[in-house]
Amino acid sequence: MKIDVKELLEDKVKSKSSHYVETSESMEGLTFDVLPRVWFTLERVRDRKVLLTCKVETSVLLECSRCLELYPQYLGFSYEELYTEEPFRVIGKLTEEDFKFTIENNIIDISNSVRENIILNLPIKPLCGDDCRGLCPVCGKNLNRESCNCSLGDTVIKY
Q1: How is the chain split into domains, by residue range?
Q2: DSSP 8-state symbol, 66
Q3: Per-residue pLDDT averaged across 6-24, rounded?
Q4: What is the pLDDT of residues 73-124, one digit of tens each?
Q5: Rounded Cα–Cα distance for residues 107 and 2 (Å)
Q6: Which end of the chain is more exposed for a tag (fewer CB within 10 A), N or C?
Q7: What confidence tier does 11 reach under pLDDT thresholds 50, 70, 90?
Q8: In contact, 86 and 102? CB cutoff 8 Å
């Protein structure tokens, strides 16, 4: 979503708040059970800088790392980012100021930011459930749905 922040930069308003639902096109590479719902506030903080405070709720379809079945994973999180008109540059050690985003032509596009933060909040090892039994290492059957007669089939292997 592209947002015009000209009024904020010119100090005509102190903040802007709104909410919207992201489109699947702007969330390339992710598959959703429920498209991301986004609530945001933009606030001018100082020196023509804008602070984005964002809350995201969604349900992403992930593949379980044990049984390889798709399952919906709820995500709900908040984050903040600082936007500035200055181009990004790093000199010496990184500081908090180096982690800012650029305002171009008085526009901030937060869709990419939302997508990146969804990816950062995905579980490292997605599991459909703590009790997932996975696949039989011998015959490959999904042990959550059926038993097998393999010597290792009834053994739950957690890795």
Answers
A1: 2-120, 132-159
A2: T
A3: 89
A4: 999 999 999 888 876 555 666 665 555 677 888 889 899 899 999 999 999 9
A5: 6
A6: C
A7: confident
A8: yes
Q: How many CB atoms lie within 10 A of CB 38?
A: 20
How many Å apart are CA 118 and CA 92, to the nearest integer? Answer: 30
- Cα dihedral 109, 28, 123, 74 in deg (nearest 10): 80
Task: Give residue 159's pLDDT.
Answer: 44
| Closest listed residue to residue 33, CA positions, set 57, 68, 55, 54 | 57
Instruction: Compute the average pLDDT of residues 41-54.
Output: 89
Sign of CA dihedral 100, 105, 106, 112: negative
d(CA 46, CA 11): 10
Q: What is the dihedral of CA 118, 35, 102, 5, to 10 degrees?
A: -140
Q: How many CB atoms lie within 10 A of CB 3?
A: 19
Token pair belonging to 98: 């180096």
Task: Give the residue, 14 or 70, on which the prediction is more confident.
Answer: 70
